[in-house]
Fold:
Amino acid sequence: MPSALETLVKILKLERDLGCADKAVIGGLRAFAQNWVKDAHAQARKPEHHALVDELAGLLSNYTDLSGTDSRDQAIKYMIGRITGRVAPSSGNLPVPPTPPVTESVAEPVPESIPTPDASPEVIDPPQPRRDPPQGRNPFREKRLERRPRESQPPPEGNKGSKKETERETYPDRGGQRGRPAPSQEPEDAGDDLFSKGGEIRPTDDPYAPFTGSVINIPQTPDPARVFRPPRKARAPRDQSREAAYFRRLDAPITTLKGIGPKIGEKLAALDLHTVRDWLYLFPRRYLDYTRMTPIRRLEPGQLTTVAGTVRNAVIIKGRRGVDVLNVILDDGTGTLTASFFGQPYLISKFPRGEQVVFSGKTGIYQGRITLDNPEWEPIEQEALHTRKMIPVYPLTKGLSAHAMRRLSAKVVGMFADDMPDYLPQSVLDRLEMADLGWSLRQLHFPDSEEARRHARQRIAFDELILLQLGMLRNRRVWQSQPGLALEVQDQWLEGALAALPFQLTGAQRRAIEIIREDLARTLPMNRLLQGDVGAGKTAVAAAALLIAVMSGAQGAIMAPTSILAEQHYRGISRLIQAMTRSLVPEESENPQSGEPLVKVALLTGATPAAERAELLAALREGRIHILIGTHALIQEGVEFERLGLAVIDEQHRFGVEQRGALRGKGTNPHLLVMTATPIPRTLALTVHADLDYTVLDEMPPGRTPIQTRLLTSGEREISYRFIRGHLEKGRQAFIVYPLIESDENKESRAAVSEYERLQKEVFPDRRLGLLHGRMSPSQKDGIMNAFSRGEIDVLISTTVVEVGIDVPNASVILIEGANRFGLAQLHQLRGRVGRGQHPGFCILLPDGEGGTERLEVMEETNDGFVLAQKDLEQRGAGELFGTRQSGEGLKMGEYMNPALVELAQLEARTLYAEDPDLSLPEHDLLRTQIERIFGVTSGGDVS
Structure:
């Protein structure tokens, strides 16, 4: 570990960076000196070393009394100079604190004992200023905000003792200097005095002698050239035959490449790599940045860096909050640091003593020692180390190593990237100063520098946005080129129907109904997105729209993603329709001959019996069923409407383009209303849903109690279990949601299947538990969800399949494990499963480990889904939010799509669309081809 003098140098530098305000350590430098001087004297070997310690202790004690920044800065420079040997002892020129007035002296009481290490001041991490917890948080929350406890690891049994001071050795490979033994010669007691953060001072180390040599030989190479503007090359004249040949090769199976046979092809298929194009767009998950290699001795807190070294030791300690912490001590010959992995004890087998590894992450400081928390890591690749490059890290599958993936990627990128025809017009690239497509693909796989990668990333993210925008605009144009039915009702009629509802509509609901009514009255088919938070009242708006269609002589349909959601809509829509029609024409609300309601609502799912299904379909064809509600069964063969005028799709992001088109194909260009509770910022919604008009319900019905959310730590899991038990005893129900199905998918996270068994045996043995996950068949899922809805299950253990489709008014608590692995918008959707009845709702968030929880704090502060979605966009990019995209390909760069880039793509897409709607100009030929490849070729029919 760093010596006492090295620690002091780092603290002095931090104090200088903080403006000489005596805030580098809690309590100030005077308090710090009390414990530091003891450690420093213990490490000193010579009389002059002890003299230096005494001199520095006096300077530290007087530092607080110095007035003015200049005086303190001069004192810091002097102390650092004395430690490094660059400055001779002072001859009296140092600033001194002002002399206090002469008063009668009173002796200060002598402390009875030396303060313990636990009482030593704590170093402040400057990038993470301490915040006071908001008012109203529970005591567990406030305890979590305290700084990391000081923990020490007891020495392993049998490893007591250490080398004597006289047993010093010289190592020829380090220039004959005395220093640390090489990793292969590490003494058995190397881990005896490990702290929970940092390493140990061993008697064989002279803390006052400079480090020499290096365990890892890091060559000194010049920094890569700055890339202020991406390079561009002149475009060659178009050669359509060459382009056609290139695209044929691009879409050829990956196994057609030399060196990639059927066996490797099978392994690549597990990564969804089938063609050359697939590989070019399989971007690395992350990079190991060998261009930022920094000797450990030169590290400063808050620094993004990559360090390479040799593992001196690896130990597991039990954190105070019950978290297993793996501490890996890395030595690069200039110093040591501790890399801590929270909740990942299984990694210890990856770090045997002597293993050479590289860590990447942001440095912190704890008790004066440089640390890395949960860094990215990988065994050292010697070639990359000596060439100082950024090394891509790809997703892996069984039988393919990281090195093999890099080698194959270099082959594919080298053969195809540079010759990739650029489909964006030259004018767009010139105007936006964007990089060429081929250069961008190469730089995303094998970047020359971080700046080059940033330019490449921006180009690919922009491409995905503008292609999506152009594709959606094209779909909208084709859809509205065919006339639809005009569905009109009188003002008096509509007002009477709405007044008959058993609740008061919000202003937002009334505005949405009026906008939809105006759309339905036109022959131009409506294509509208209705977006509203959980509980905002979208169902009532849909019911009013369906009734307008029916009373205008047409039929309506609602398609939901799950059977249970379809059944919920059936019950809710039937109740609302019956109330509105009975109020309007009470004497005609039922057919006098059959006793059936005036507006017949029916339900069709995959579970509908064959005989009932046949009767239902016949009534639908004859127009005797006015509103049909169902699942994917609505778009199956044999489902025919007499006159479908309005199609409503709920939770539309669960349906693909083909399914939406199939439902609209059941009528003659019917009006379309799609609904979602997924909050998306307006800017993003106008891109991902550019083919839809946009209406938002931004007002909640009165009387709805906000859900209370608490963020706990993994060590407080038992508290959450006790809270759930309390609600179960009151007759309520609860959800426990996990990010994974099986535990072997990611050992860092708890998983639904294994936790279901544990919870049933150990935590809730006297309760009825149910298990729900995405690998179950539809009938199994429906059975579990229906049992939970009927109250036959007390606690539902589930994955995120409960995000949509569960409405259980009796459920009052949801516990979300691994909460840091979800986006804020998705967490908001999940917590919307509770508090839907008369009982208040409670949401408990339990993150994995201790990292990445800061962004979750906003969940405690707001129940506004749109605020959370905007936070997601700002913090994590559009990756989470673009999960709603329903065109042909997934977005690779969603997390890098910031609001400014989204708006830029919208502007350019609309400019191109206004100039050339069909993209028929020669310079737009490749762009049109790319859009057709993604969205399909239009022929005047339905495309959405």
